[in-house]
Amino acid sequence: MDDKSKLLAIRKVDNLIASIAYSRLILNDTILEQMYCVLTSQDYGEDNFFQFFSKVVSFRTSHRFRSLKLLHDRTEFRGPSTIVNAWYKADLNTITLPAAIFTAPIFDATFPMAVNYGFVGALIGHELIHGFDNQVCVTRAHVSVMFTVRFQGVQFFENGLLHSWMSEQSQANFDRLAECMVEQYSQVCYAQVNRCVSGNRTLAENIADNGGMNVAYRAYQTYIYGRGADEAPLPGFENYTLEQVFFMAYGKLWCMSSTSRNLLDTLQFDTHSPNVARVNEVLKNSPAFQKAFGCSTENKMHTDRICEIW
Question: Where is the Peptidase M13 C-terminal domain (predicted)?
Answer without folding.
Answer: 85-135, 146-309
